[in-house]
Request: fold
Amino acid sequence: MLLETSNKTSNFAAKALIKKGYYPGKLVKVQEFTSGKDKVAKVCKHGKQLILDFEIWKEDKSGPVTYDDDGTERPVVISKFVYHIYKVTDKDNVWTEGEFKTAITPNSKITEILEALGWKFTEDPVDPDNFIGKFAELNINDYTNNKGKDNEETYSSIADIGKLEGEGEPVEPKEITPEIQAEIDKLEESRKNLDNLIATEGITQQGYDDAVEQITHDIKNLKG
Reply:
């Protein structure tokens, strides 16, 4: 599954519930999020998504976390949905139907995930299948669906994905000087202003998402 990049700035398994925390996760499957009998790529709110299936491993990487499935021990697998293609929209955030652009840019969530798995960004197409078997650090949290309803259910979800200690090249922690902290504080204040704007409909959802993505990326760079 070779995916285009740009330098512009699963079958669903049983839903497991495990203890919240950080776990090593091994990428075991990559598939397009599809719909219908023909398995056509589903066009979601902002574009098209991939489903990344991660097998959850014990902290010491001695093996996967398992659950009992009618007497059979099976590894816990949790899926992460991520956009790999965005809709092309005009200045009013109206989609030009049928037009898309790659989501794999230097600042995007999918790039962050691929880099956590060992990829270094280039303008060449990237095949996420090449990272099957690679490990990343998964922040596992609880997610409650249909809260307050009769069919309410809580299961584990992947809140965030980062580099796993020992995977990839080690990086020395960056010293946060008062000057750097001041820049971080300014960016965090900008994020709060964006939250106020989206709440009062003073900015489009796409504009909000793009701005938050850029701020998050800038803070991450400042923190090293």
